[in-house]
Amino acid sequence: xxxxxxxxxxxxxxxxxxxxxxxxxxxxxxxDVVRQTGGADDWNGVVWTAPxxxxxxxxxEIAAQVEHYTALGIPEFEWKLYAHDGPxxxxxxxxxxxxxxxxxxxxxxxxxxELAAPAELPEGLTLRTVTDAAGVELMxxxxxxxxxxxxxxxxxxxxxxxxxxxxxxxxxxxxxxxxPVSSARMEMYPGTGFAGLWGGGTAAPWRxxxxxxxxxxxxxxxxxxxxxxxxQVDATDRSAPILRRLGFTALGTTTPYVYRTTP
Length: 263
What we know:
12-stranded mixed beta sheet; alpha+beta; 8 helices
């Protein structure tokens, strides 16, 4: 499949007809956008905008989404702006409305079957599947070590998925003895051909030793075994070069525009 065809499939299956990404969330078409709404610790935001959206209509939609999430008391929400989304200058309109652009990410995809392989980790490391609260705590600690960010929301979302929708979610943590050093997640989207890879990160002392690649291979093997054709990643500047070497193809970029409803 050519890149433009794949992008069209991704837009249709993963954005225009998006599914809720966790228990307690809902996805709905509201005017010219598709948005997800959940609780304060869930991911909230706009995932799709209608083609042909005019600048004037875009301003109205932006105001409507701010009103929607603010009225619900959601502390922040995101507008996922893809490079091919219209109208031209949508990013500037979002900024003018009070959204803050975060670093852009590369949208990359790869055939799951071509990357499926056993995880080959450096000596001394062990891969564990996260199935309970103790495993979630290890994963959160690994995430905080890798990214230097608070893992409270990750804890909430992971516990909810393991409890209420375990068949569409995989979480793993890598340990050196009892110490977590890396973690990663995968979300499966039933009814589509896609599985999404999220959160892959490794503590600094263990980087450059193949841990990230091993976690990609492990999740690809699971996805392929469940019949998912493609892996999708919103890749940071750190992970995108690794993923391209593994065989992922870049379809474009996406920039998270974040609106904080409370100071």
